[in-house]
Amino acid sequence: MPKCEVTPNSPNVNKCVGAKPPAVELHIPIKNLSSRNLQTTNTPSGNIHFREQKGYFQRLRTMMNSLLIVLFFALPFISIDGRQAILLDVSQQQFFFFGITLWPQDFTLLAWIFIAAAFSLFFITVFWGRVWCGYLCPQTAWTFMYVWIETRIEGSSNKRKQLDKAPWSASKIAKRTTKHLLWGLTALLTGCAFISYFIPARELYVDIFTSNASFWVTCWVWFFAVCTYLNAGWMREQMCIHCCPYSRFQAVMFDANTKTVTYDAQRGESRGPRKRKQQTSLNEPTLGDCVDCNLCVEVCPTGIDIRNGLQYECINCGACVDACNETMLKFDYKQNLIGYMSENDIKGVRYTYWRSPRFLGYGIAVIIMLIVIGLDLHGRSEIQLNVIRDRQSLYRETADNKIENTYQLKIRNKTQETKQYQLAVDSEMPFSLIANPIITLAAGEQLDYPVTVLADRDNLASGRKIIQFSVTDIKQPDQQVSQKTGFFSP
């Protein structure tokens, strides 16, 4: 007859000397984190009133969300050289980024930046899963901000649930009215902040709140205000679950070493409620460390149960990690029953990222994109030149036996300073430029400049010759742009 005893360090686990340990029935199987078969769960119908949670990851998330919101509202009010730091002036087709002026012709640079950002997101996903959604996504930041307002007015999650079920009364009407007014004001400020990236911020806010803004400006501000109010106030987790494409393809970037919010089923099952410091009797079934408090579900902004395995609805915000660690501390159990863990962490397997094709592929792609952005910035010219031939005639013959061709030059000063340029024409043949070679352009100005190129007929071979127009900054000779075109003669 084997002798059984209760170990003091783990009051919920029985040890039997000389006997096989009792079989532990795992209700929830461990899922392969690197697989693409993410589990789906039926999220609760109706509003999800998740609890506020404190802890390390929630402090980190709040800090990063707050930084994102502050930067979003503050950047349009930062000035560099007397101009708004970030201003996308669509009407003038000028885009200002911290002293750099971009034109529609420079949009390839923005394309490289967006591609680099996408590969950087994929690269981070290989390490930490969907942390972008939990810590930096605007939808998450504004959702938590709206829930914070809701909690200050209507109370905790249980009080909000009770208020939903309660009949309409003066108190309920007052709370709901106050909440929606604050939501609406926050949405209006968000709409103003978004449009202030396209219209000077200091003028926009005054015009909107004094009703002096134009019809279309007002329409766009209220359009984004309504979108913010609906997304952060009403849709919330529905945007993450049903509308966000990232939740659908994130799993293809996971591997066995990707750290995601994971429940350690081997340690936690079988789960069951108990009292603190409770000693398990010999006749009771063996319990894991999960006390089935359900806090991990109550704090989840998408309403899922992380104990059901990896799910695409999880945004990796870490709220369930902080809630579970708080419970483990109360029961004097080991932390991180739910934590940022990989499949290899649970198995105790050591792994090097250098062996991962995803790590190498995304890392190399990010480096290549950064090099392309650097080269594009380095080769970017501050002058724009387009040469257009006279379409009415190929050439004209003058009375003094000369051949002339007429061109229209479109020259743009892409800087924010007045510039003087030297115009020249280069060719192997002797050509004369009939135009003032010194051109002065104001900041951002484009000039349509007609010029005539003249040559002696006797010195020209028949047919088409190649000539090249060049425009050079007089004060900065390294800033030069040129374009080739044809010169026609009989």
From TrEMBL:
Domain 4Fe-4S ferredoxin-type span(s) in chain numbering: 278-309, 313-334
Keywords: 4Fe-4S, Electron transport, Iron, Iron-sulfur, Membrane, Metal-binding, Transmembrane, Transmembrane helix, Transport
Keyword Transmembrane helix tagged: yes
Keyword Endoplasmic reticulum assigned: no
UniProt xrefs under Pfam families: Fer4_18, Fer4_5, FixG_C
Record InterPro entries: 4Fe4S_Fe-S-bd (IPR017896), 4Fe4S_Fe_S_CS (IPR017900), Cyt_c_oxidase_cbb3_FixG (IPR014116), Electron_Trans/Redox (IPR051684), FixG_C (IPR032879), Ig-like_fold (IPR013783)
Top-rank taxon: Bacteria
Regions that span the bilayer: 67-87, 107-128, 181-201, 213-232, 359-379
Name of the protein in question: Cytochrome c oxidase accessory protein CcoG
Organism per entry: Shewanella morhuae
Gene: ccoG
